[in-house]
Complex III subunit 9 (Acorus gramineus), 77 residues
Amino acid sequence: MASTARVAATAMRGGGPFEGLYKFVMRRNSVYVTFVVAGAFLGERAVDYGVHKLWEYNNVGKRFEDISVLGTRQAEE
């Protein structure tokens, strides 16, 4: 029993990947602000791309680009 408690205490002391990331990001205010701004930019791009693809998927055949007769005129003779 004592050995399992020792292993658990050692594992908790080491931290883990999230604690390492936290220590890296919170090291300085400039690193934190850069992380937040970059995360917001990349998150916005990902959401915009996903919503755009979902919109195109749901509106196939209903968009202006899909209707071939719009914008064309018959030749006058």
Remarks:
- The chain has a mean pLDDT of 81.
- The chain has one domain: 2-66.
- The helical segments are 2-14, 17-25, 29-58.
- The chain has three helices and no strands.
